[in-house]
Amino acid sequence: MSPLHEDDFPEPLDQSQTRIATIEAAVHQILDALGEDPNREGLQDTPKRVAKALLYLTHGLNKPLESAIGNALFASDNDEMVVVRNIEFYSLCEHHMLPIIGHVDIGYIPQGKVIGLSKLARIVDLYARRLQIQENMTQQIADAVRESTDARGVAVQVRAAHMCMAMRGVEKVNAETITSMMLGTFRSDARARNEFLQLIGRG
Ligand SMILES: Nc1nc2c(ncn2[C@@H]2O[C@H](COP(=O)(O)OP(=O)(O)OP(=O)(O)O)[C@@H](O)[C@H]2O)c(=O)[nH]1
Ligand SMILES: [Zn+2]
Q1: What's the ipTM?
Q2: 163 CB near ligand 1 (under 6 Å)
Q3: Does any ligand 1 atom lie closer than 6 A to the CB of residue 165?
């Protein structure tokens, strides 16, 4: 599965064209309301660009979990913790539609099968590429890893900067929001939790 590009949308072309046209008209109105001249040379193609960019930035919406994983689940007797850390993500906050930019660390303890490593990053993108709040994204990623792997435990930590807190509002550029979700063994066993935190460099 190759990464999605701005020009491919995961739906029939006519549906994408309808969405692009609708968003384009709305962006034209927004430019006008901002006091801009939407017809000046520099802005002529802006509504279309914004429409395509917004569809790209939310392309995880309504996509099933299987689309991120395919067949990449492999039988394995290994029952040691697997950690993939520092998976970068770009999302949009659902309150202001401004960027949330950060990193996700994922750990799981396999129980009979392991998942293709890249699929953990694809799971992150599936939930990041839509309008989000960080807490829900954290939980959705953890639930998806658990559901797809039947792992004994799943740990997810998300560290992010919210542009709505940096570029406007309280204007705190250095604030970092950390959320985590511990399932199964990670919730019940402090040693497993601490090992995860050590491995992600936060213990
Ligand atoms: N819990 C949570 N809050 C978020 C997230 N992203 C943005 N927010 C917050 O959503 C809140 C919306 O608050 P409102 O008072 O309705 O909006 P606002 O007037 O724009 O608030 P300010 O940002 O404080 O100016 C703000 O406190 C944001 O910081 C997130 O991922 N999780
Ligand atoms: Zn926001």
Answers
A1: 0.91
A2: no
A3: yes
